[in-house]
Design goal:
single chain
């Protein structure tokens, strides 16, 4: 089983929007996922948020193509009430 790495919305935006200075780092991580050396895990809400922000600068067909390609190298995490409850009660500063 490969390592699972959670990619938050900002990192997904850095990659799909090719935002510098972080694009190069996430592109290297995405290459590892493409080579099946690790598994990227993304929140389902990240897809909606990334689609919204990239859609401000790119055609929706381009954004959808990017998201489809990203889905090939990633998994969508399961989010439900228990996940939210754990997040609200954790000691992490970031939700």
């Amino acid at each position: 089983m490969s390592k699972r790495v959670f990619i938050d919305t900002n990192i997904m935006l850095d990659f799909l929007g090719e935002r510098h200075p972080h694009y190069k780092s996430i592109a290297q991580i995405a290459s590892l996922a493409d080579a099946n050396k690790l598994t990227l895990v993304v929140s389902p809400i990240s897809y909606a948020t990334v689609s919204y922000f990239l859609g401000k600068y790119e055609k929706s067909s381009v954004v959808n193509t990017k998201l489809r390609k990203f889905k090939v190298i990633s998994e969508v995490s399961v989010t439900h009430e228990q996940t939210v409850e754990k997040s609200l009660n954790s000691k992490f500063k970031d939700f």
